[in-house]
UniProtKB/TrEMBL annotation:
Source organism, top-level taxon: Bacteria
GO cellular component: cytosol
Record keywords: DNA-binding, Transcription, Transcription regulation
Name assigned to this protein: Lrp/AsnC family transcriptional regulator
MF term (GO), any: sequence-specific DNA binding
Residue ranges of domain HTH asnC-type in the record: 174-234
Record keyword Phosphoprotein present: no
Residue span of region Disordered: 152-171
UniProt-listed InterPro entries: AsnC-type_HTH_dom (IPR000485), Dimeric_a/b-barrel (IPR011008), Tscrpt_reg_AsnC-like (IPR019888), Tscrpt_reg_AsnC/Lrp_C (IPR019887), WH-like_DNA-bd_sf (IPR036388), WH_DNA-bd_sf (IPR036390)
Entry-linked SUPFAM superfamilies: Dimeric alpha+beta barrel, Winged helix' DNA-binding domain
Membrane spanning stretches: none
Record carries keyword Nucleotide-binding: no
Amino acid sequence: MELGLLQALQLDGRAALSRIARSLGASERTLARRYSRLCTLGLRVVGQLVPARLGMTRWLLRLHCAPGSAGSVARALARRPDTSWISLASGGSELYCALTTSTQHERDKLLLEKLPRTPGLTSVDAHCLLRVFTGITSTWYASGIPFGPARRDEENGAPLPAPEFREPPGPLSLDATDRALLAELAKDGRAALPELAAATGRSPSSVQRRLEHLKAQGALGFSVDFAPRHLGYDLMTHLWLRVAPGEVSAVGRALAAHPEIAFAAATTGPHNLVASGVFRGDHDLHHYLDQRVGSLPGIQSIETAPILREVKRLAFRA
């Protein structure tokens, strides 16, 4: 039932527990107990901006640090509001950092001035994310696992919507109310309408209309944050792939459909595709690389970088 609940929240972060319970064939009271238990283990649902929809550019930084410096560099980056997740890998000297920039000036200030002067940082590789194949930032493995016998919306009998979203053209502008609303949802994506109304100075009905507008415009999504280790998945790793140019989109879509993959994107740099995966252990990772990824057409090479520690996750600025 826990997997079904997590999957339902991944599809609709603000879905009522009563609706999820009907979809899973469970009582609302039982589901509420399971939900409370998962919350004590760290479950949270986070509302997130879709950077590309707002004219922002997403970057993945691969940072190398002097021995003993990675921790302090990671903590400094984690304090920045424009970083969304930071992980420590490769023997403790390599960091991965995802961030967004709004303007060319902001980009140049960070990449050409601030980062090169950071104490303990020996090199910076900045990769522009060209296309994300798994929606916003999904940080756990279960996005490909269906829940319930039929995975249908019991209120109208229609299939529940797929989490994939297609970006509409042109950046969307946000006003002060939108930004206040998004800031609250970044803290708690399931905050009740009266709470959101109090934070934004609007009526609950006005907040509901704003929510629906932002979702309809592709500017707002919801992600589930839950540590996979609680479900027996102890190995997280980054995958850097070199793929034949004509096969990048096909391989990216294939990776996004694998339940092991939490994130996949086309990127600039010597590797044109990057992904993050979650596995039970090294045997599962080997099987995945050998049997699942190895059989995809167009893959020329794969580099793996196991994640030792996550320093920051699921945080976008509003």
